[in-house]
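User: Quick sanity check before I run a bigger batch. Here is a single chain. Can you write out its predicted 3D structure?
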Amino acid sequence: MAGLVPAIHVLQQCCTKGMSNRAESKRLCPVQESYPRDKKTWMAGTSPAMTSRFHTMTIHLETQSDLEDAVHALMKLDPRLQPIFALTGMPALRRREPGFAGLAHIVCGQQVSTASAAAIWGRVSAAFDPFHHDALRKARTDRLGRLGLSGAKIKTLKNLAREIASERLNLDVLANEDADAAHNTLTALHGIGPWTADVYLLFCLGHGDAWPAGDIAIQEAIKIGLGLQTRPTPKQMAPLAEPWRPLRGAAAHLWWSYYRVLKKREGVIGK
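Assistant: Done. Predicted structure follows.
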């Protein structure tokens, strides 16, 4: 609950700041005066200014409990998600190793099957144990190629290693940045596309507002769940997810769960 409770406390402060009396406080912020600080608390009936303040908070999904709090909060934010949750139940939190190793793992899995990605990463991680950016930065290209890495992936990994070694890139600080700013930082790097950036932010850093707008499964799930005529494009996914800030990462977990429910019911969903 580390991510949600600070946001709740900030909102509570917004509710009471500058209010001259109890009646005015209740009118503008219909949250009980004895505002509970436990992780199940949600902020209902808040003003636009308070909601805006909450939307700028950085939420972290570090534990299953964090995700559960976030999903319940999402259903308060957007009641359209309630029937989705009724079908999926609570999604399981997905986490990966942070840092250079986590990002390198995702790069190794770009545009290959799950089995191939696992095999390549197994060879690469075994060859560099402990896995450190300096070791990969100094490694010969032909050695990396024999491990199954393509020329493009070798270039991407070596560039990442150089950026980290030179301290031009600090992956750890991205967890506390605005999700869109962190996304832009990563996609500015050679070989890091939107999908890789968002998967890293969400699964490796636990960024609660990371939004994988280009993920086809989420696009298809939203199309069906929200009754859209066509699958939304990555560009269209941004405004669709706006009501779910700053918990878009939790929304992604919910939509992935819904997609799995749809696949079980109707087989493989058409492209």
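The chain has a mean pLDDT of 82.

User: Great, the batch can go ahead then.
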